[in-house]
């Protein structure tokens, strides 16, 4: 999503050759003048300064060049921040699209991907305790930014503190309760938060699910249930969800929610998109027979030809693997994490072939193609679709969300899209904590499934702008928000984990509930003027049509979105 047009190569430009041998402290002779130029560090509620270093040069990424800005490099329990001497002019620019929480020179600790050090012009990965400290610190960010900090003129003790502090607070495994999210929530209790319902349907009440059933006309065949209230059946499922009306509620606890068809969305013709987590694999023949009998009973409820026909899509075996997504994205992001101009021009010559060989675009194509196949079954063949996955919390979230974005105009509004993410990803139990590796406990679990979804939507927005109320900028800042730990939205593996750690059960010493921010309140990050860039001025709201007109409209929108790049 961050790919930008590359500038033409300045063939006639000579390589910069001037090197300054004047130390920065020799430049500033007037101490009073230097003090006046210092930039103040702004701390959020609950944020604490951990370590800092002065006389740090934030470098321009050029070979053998020490151009840049001098300032302080600080590390807090929330972010790494560079405070440059001449940043004030930039801050006063009213036309800039500024984030009120994270500035241009700020890196949240969760956004740090890799840290490198330069020793005698050799780049090495930094981790653990260091015996020798680098001359230059290079930080690769998960939002594809790259920072170079020259420490050559910094005091040795300060270098040790800042480098060790950054490595420890970004790379070391963490406990959930040690996240800044908790410090901020406790310290910001007196801050007034807007009503969450103004920004999205949260799907944390039975009424929210009933509203969605009513909106999609799914209430004729499906019902919202509260059998998991208090998470007494399954900690993986939300407290409330929707199942087929004929399904006995006593069947839900049989295998802790596994093997139960859970409703995602209903098409205008009455067909529905369902998902199911697979039953645990067993070796015992007796247990296998019990599971088979249970599933046979479930299928008899939802598969009743010729009235109700169900097609099962096993995403665990007939689609992508998480390993494929992880490998492709690792190759893809390297195209943007460029350290210097030499690397830039080396990759520029073969950039498109490298992009193709990463397989990331092919994975996007396969996701959109799978969504089209499901739409054909729902709309043209009048089939119910049952998505099957081990835990129904990764690829099920991805595919079901894409189907709804492509078929339901409501999901292409900002309110509808945010509600969709709440329903399919947050309440659907997508493990954001593990998939984003917020705790740094397992690199193997880090798979950018949600980012893949946003990139798929970006392709649709890019190819058919009038169909979406939000912009490409909106998708970009939403992806950036994955790593801002003042919002609880993307920092838990399940609603149960969130409620257990921060919900009604978590209170401070005075007995007040913690104040949780939702990422959907964009006023926390952006001023009203900046928020206008999140809304698409070309958006054309679709008029409500009767059933006879709807089918052609959906097909037209779908093919217009995909164009010739993703044939159906």
UniProtKB/TrEMBL annotation:
Acts as an adapter for the myotubularin-related phosphatases. Regulates phosphatase MTM1 protein stability and possibly its intracellular location. By stabilizing MTM1 protein levels, required for skeletal muscle maintenance but not for myogenesis. Keywords: Cytoplasm, Sarcoplasmic reticulum. Residues 203-568 form the Myotubularin phosphatase domain. The lineage of its organism: Eukaryota, Metazoa, Chordata, Craniata, Vertebrata. Its main location: cytoplasm. Belongs to the protein-tyrosine phosphatase family. Non-receptor class myotubularin subfamily. The keyword Cytoplasm applies. It comes from the Eukaryota. It is found in: Cytoplasm, Myofibril, Sarcomere; Sarcoplasmic reticulum. The keyword Coiled coil does not apply. One of its GO terms (cellular component) is sarcoplasmic reticulum. Transmembrane segments: none annotated. PROSITE patterns: PPASE_MYOTUBULARIN. InterPro entries: MTMR12_PTP (IPR030576), Myotubularin (IPR030564), Myotubularin-like_Pase_dom (IPR010569), PH-like_dom_sf (IPR011993), Prot-tyrosine_phosphatase-like (IPR029021). Heterodimer with lipid phosphatase MTM1. Heterodimer with lipid phosphatase MTMR2. This is Myotubularin-related protein 12.
